[in-house]
């Protein structure tokens, strides 16, 4: 079974994957196929856990490829904290792509925080819509991750070192 950690970004996905690396019966990675296109973009090995915020732009293809056969985690963080983190990254990455590519702003027409909040609302809505008919999914909040992660572990039948995985959740990776 494949597992996808769907998220907006800036919400603990790197930390989540670091914790998953203590699971022995699954491989796990963060943004491992982000440069691939076509069928290669979703060509994940069986029994793999993937976190990639760009998957929110591939939800139709994710549904066609994996449908209800995968397990989905909707990882989120307080939207204000997420927007604050993203607003410091307005000139690169996915936020730049959203502002300049989707919204077609050639210059900053809105504040970085407003652009970030709009991006987050859009991605979160896309994920919720995608998951509405999925029987194998759960919501995980960064604020409750120490409580939610053992439930996730049990739900996927993980084998490995849960104690080490939980210790990873205390480390902040990829901070801005």
Describe the structure.
By secondary structure, this protein is α/β, with parallel strands linked by helices. The protein has one domain (3-168): P-loop containing nucleotide triphosphate hydrolases (Rossmann fold). It is built from seven helices and five strands; from the N terminus they run βαββαβαααβαα. It has helices at 13-20, 59-66, 79-87, 93-102, 112-131, 145-155, 162-168; strands at 3-6, 27-30, 48-51, 71-76, 137-141. A five-stranded parallel β-sheet has the order 2-3-1-4-5, with helices on both faces. Helix 1 runs antiparallel to helix 7 and helix 3 (79-87) packs across helix 5 (112-131).
CATH topology: Rossmann fold
Helix content: 40-55%
CATH class division? Alpha Beta
What amount of the residues lies in strands? 5-15%
Q: Evaluate the radius of gyration.
A: 16 Å
Class based on secondary structure composition and strand pairing: alpha/beta
Widest beta sheet: strand line-up:
2-3-1-4-5
Instruction: Note poorly predicted spans.
Output: none
Largest sheet, in brief, is: 5 strands, parallel
Q: Can you tell me the number of structural domains? A: 1
Could you outline the blueprint of secondary structure elements for this entry?
Blueprint: E1 3-6, H1 13-20, E2 27-30, E3 48-51, H2 59-66, E4 71-76, H3 79-87, H4 93-102, H5 112-131, E5 137-141, H6 145-155, H7 162-168
Helix pairs in contact: 1-7, 3-5
What attributes does this structure have?
globular; 176 residues; five-stranded parallel sheet
């Amino acid at each position: 079974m494949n597992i996808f950690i769907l998220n907006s970004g800036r919400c603990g996905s790197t930390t989540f994957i670091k914790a998953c690396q203590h699971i022995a019966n699954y491989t796990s990675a963060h943004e491992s196929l982000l440069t691939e296109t076509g069928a290669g973009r979703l060509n994940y090995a069986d029994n793999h856990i993937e976190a990639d915020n760009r998957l929110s732009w591939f939800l139709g293809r994710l549904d066609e490829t994996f449908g209800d056969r995968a397990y989905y985690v909707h990882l989120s963080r307080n939207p204000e904290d997420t927007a604050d983190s993203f607003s410091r990254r307005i000139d690169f990455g996915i936020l730049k792509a959203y502002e300049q590519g989707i919204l077609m702003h050639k210059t900053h027409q809105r504040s970085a925080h407003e652009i970030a909040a709009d991006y987050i609302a859009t991605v979160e809505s896309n994920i919720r819509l995608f998951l509405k008919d999925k029987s194998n999914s759960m919501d995980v909040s960064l604020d409750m991750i120490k409580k939610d992660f053992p439930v996730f572990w049990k739900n996927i039948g993980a084998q490995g070192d849960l104690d080490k995985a939980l210790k990873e959740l205390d480390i902040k990776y990829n901070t801005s």
